[in-house]
Amino acid sequence: MTTSCARAALLVCPASGLGRAARMAGTAAEALRGAVGKLDPLVADSAKGTAELAAAAVRDGVDVLVVLGGDGGVHHALQACAGSDTALAVVPAGTGNDFAAALGLPADPMAALSSVVGALRDGRRRRVDLGRISRATWFGTVLCAGFDSAVNERANAMSWPRGPRRYDIAIVRELARLRPQPLVLGTDEGKAELEATLVAVGNTTSYGGGIPICPDAETADGYLDVTVVREMSRRELVRMLPTLRTGRHVEHPAVTTLRARRVLLGGDNDWIAYADGERQTVLPITVECVPAALTVVTPA
After folding, report:
1. Is residue 136 packed enough to be buried (19+ CB in 10 Å), middle (13-18) or exposed (0-12)?
2. By the 8 A CB rule, do 88 and 78 touch?
3. Strand residues in 53-119 grouped as ranges (E)
4. Residues 226 and 260: beta-carbon distance below 8 Å
5. What does pLDDT average to in each consecutive run of 10 residues of the chain (300 residues)?
6. What class is the 139-292 domain?
7. What is the pTM of this model?
8. Which class is domain 7-123?
9. What is the pLDDT of residues 128-143, one digit of tens each?
10. N or C: which end of the chain has fewer CB within 10 A?
């Protein structure tokens, strides 16, 4: 059988999805071998290991890097694949799979695997935009700072419970200490200073496992979508949170949305930026859209 991909690497993030990626690694490798000329299996033992294996595979010239994991694994793979000749494929097996969803892949890992295998056989690829932080770090989905990044910080510091429940508890605890902070927001159109609860910069619509914080974002339009939640009381935020799941939060009078090619985030605050669910750095930062920075393997 002829294939459109001479050589691929399967990067397994075994801890993703509370072990889901490890459990389906053998099945994924067997399925992928039928769609590529040669498959190199790679198993990461840590976030650092994921990044190192991805970088080594790209340096070695693989045609496609297949990530079996969640948004964290994808984030590390982006640092290697962006701007290279290596295409990225994703089999979603993590807790949050927002990048895979943005590519149109099914949420079910086995269905997504079947879709990726078909796309590899047919040679289906396209270019998508990426976000870049301070000209250094790439991200595929959403960068956030403020309340939502504080929730991430708290959840990451908790050893119990495991899974999504940990984030529910982190939200409740962060609500108790909620206070708006000064934000400087600069875009192509100018600069604004305001009191804000959170800010999100989206290359895609969603973060946190399907929350469409930037509901109109597109992956290949050359722009980043920005959602700002201005000063808001604890009670108002609690009432607004359920609308995040539907994207109707943008109708709230305290929410502003805009689009820009380049965004500056700063101000006299203690906010830490997260991107693709991964901790980045404290503000200030600059964020830019880099059009067509990545080749991806996508379903029909």
Report:
1. exposed
2. yes
3. 64-69, 87-92
4. yes
5. 76 84 92 95 91 97 96 96 97 92 95 96 96 97 93 80 73 84 94 96 93 96 97 90 92 96 96 95 97 93
6. mainly beta
7. 0.93
8. alpha beta
9. 999 999 999 999 999 9
10. N
Beta bridge partners of residue 255, listed in sequence order: 229
Domain residue extents for the chain: 7-123, 139-292
Spatial distance between the Cα atoms of 158 and 161, rounded to a whole number of angstroms: 8
Task: Tell me which residue has tokens 């994921």.
Answer: 50
Q: What is the pLDDT of residues 212-248, one digit of tens each?
A: 999 999 999 999 999 999 999 889 988 998 998 899 9
| DSSP annotation of 180 | -
What pLDDT is attached to residue 213? 95
Residue type for position 92: P
Nearest Cα residue to 245 out of 207, 203, 192, 197:
207
128: left (phi over 0), alpha (psi -120 to 50) or beta: beta
List, as one string, the DSSP characters of 184-244: EEEETTEEEEEEEEEEEEESSS-BTTTB-SSTT--TTSS-EEEEEEES--HHHHHHHGGGG
Q: Where are the beta strands (DSSP E) in the chain?
A: 7-12, 38-43, 64-69, 87-92, 125-133, 137-139, 142-146, 181-187, 190-202, 224-230, 255-260, 262-266, 272-275, 278-282, 285-297
**Two tokens, residue 228:** 């700002």
Separation of first and last alpha carbons in the chain: 21
